[in-house]
Amino acid sequence: MMILAAEEIEIGVHPTATFFGLTFNLDTMLATVIAGVLVVGLGLFVRARVTAGVPSGAQLFLEGVNAQVRRQVEDSVGIKTAPFVVPLAMTLFLFILTANWLAVLPSEHYVPPPTADVNLTFALALLVIGWVQVTGIRKRGAGPYFKHFAQPYWWLLPLNLIEELAKPVSLALRLFGNIFAGGIIISLIAGLPAYLLWAPTATWKLFDLFIGLIQAFIFALLTVLYFGSATSEEGH
Questions:
Q1: Cβ contacts of 103 within 8 Å, gap of 6 or more
Q2: How far is CA 84 from CA 51, 122, 145, in A?
Q3: Taking a C-beta distance cutoff of 8 angstroms, is the pair 61, 94 a contact?
Q4: The pTM is what?
Q5: Model confidence at 25, in pLDDT bands (50, 70, 90)?
């Protein structure tokens, strides 16, 4: 049964709709909207109940995330250098975390985690890397910024360019691969007998929560580090 489950696993197969010649993955879009609504809803909920007294659990969570992000941005970039990196990294962390944790819902077959679709992870990665390049040019000037790709030696220019082009690829595939792999494991576990199914499923769901947290943290951390590299006068 497990072999049959493995054979049925297909990569990149989604219910789709075509509009003006463009193909849209409907399950990914639905899951992305759900994750976005949950994050916005959390923010509005905390904002409506924020207090200087005893904070709620949700307020403590957001304040803790904000403090950690601000500390990392200050160490890597400098708050005054790029203050927008704090809300960007924090939003990415919360959105990716929520999207990843959709994997633990019973409705995973209908609303899979959108980060298990490489289209979304590449969109997030390209957004980050494109913004990094624009920020680097604005902060350091076009000449100095592009010149740093030939540092410390001019003959390293091809390698530095390849490294820069590889950033969105590695950023996207790392997130996609880890979350998609979780879906494969769940599909394989589904082939077990019913009386054994609950134990590995519950165990893997808990592990999925941990993996989702780690991958959201890594994506946000690399975002901050990439901005720090782009705005640093020393270059790479």
A1: 112, 113, 116, 179, 182, 183, 186, 205, 208, 212
A2: 24, 21, 20
A3: no
A4: 0.84
A5: confident
| Distances from the Cα of 230 to the Cα of 62, 63, 78, 84, 100, angstroms | 27, 27, 12, 14, 28
Each residue's pLDDT tens digit, 95-109 = 999 999 987 776 555
Mean pLDDT of the chain: 83
41: which 2 tokens?
């809803």
Burial class (CB in 10 A: 0-12, 13-18, 19+), 147: middle
CA 80 to chain centre: 25
C-alpha distances in Å from residue 167, one per residue of 57, 121, 190, 225:
36, 12, 35, 12
Positions marked active-site: 170, 174, 178
